[in-house]
Amino acid sequence: MLLRLADADVLPFEFESFAETVTRYVDEIVTMTDEMREETERTTLLIADDRYVLAADPTTTYVPPTAQDPVPHLNFAPLRNILTRLEASAEAYGDALDPAAMARLSTADQRALDQILIRTERVLTRNEGLPGRPWFKHQIYAPGFYTGYSVKTIPGVREAIEQRDWQLATTQIGHAADALERFADQIDLATEILSASR
Prior knowledge:
- The protein is mostly helical and 198 residues long.
- Helix content is 63%, strand content 3%.
- The protein has one domain (15-196): Up-down Bundle (Transcription Elongation Factor S-II, Chain A), CATH 1.20.930.40.
- The protein has helices at residues 2-7, 16-48, 51-55, 77-96, 99-104, 107-122, 155-162, 166-196, and strands at residues 141-143, 151-153.
- It is elongated.
């Protein structure tokens, strides 16, 4: 991989797979939220009907669970909207990335394109970091708060939902969408350089 990167006239990046992967991550989070909402509703009904108390062993001490607040319908539209744009930007870059266009790039254009491509990953970070862990800056991948080094995808959003902090989840949805928008902006700049060489 290092040889491929070192020998390339322009960094050999493509973005369509990334767009598909992040879309899958968002789908997972939406599904997780829907399942949490359904489970909370089911558990609340069981508590209201005293099912846990009725099913408990009367010879042992038992404290039934308490009802939790309902899971609201979070607004995932900012993420969905930017993912639509990201998919279009990634596809446009892929279309513009042909060997003939690459051969016509001047050395200055190759350098400019490389600088843009290098920034793509960097714009997915946020200086303030993640809630409770400002040293983790990446908005798409980070170790989980309780999972050691095991990765969490779109960690700010996912962990806020897992902690049932709905206001924080809404804020983190905005931060993740902003990071992806900056990413799409970089891809569009790279596409402009390739398109100008045609």
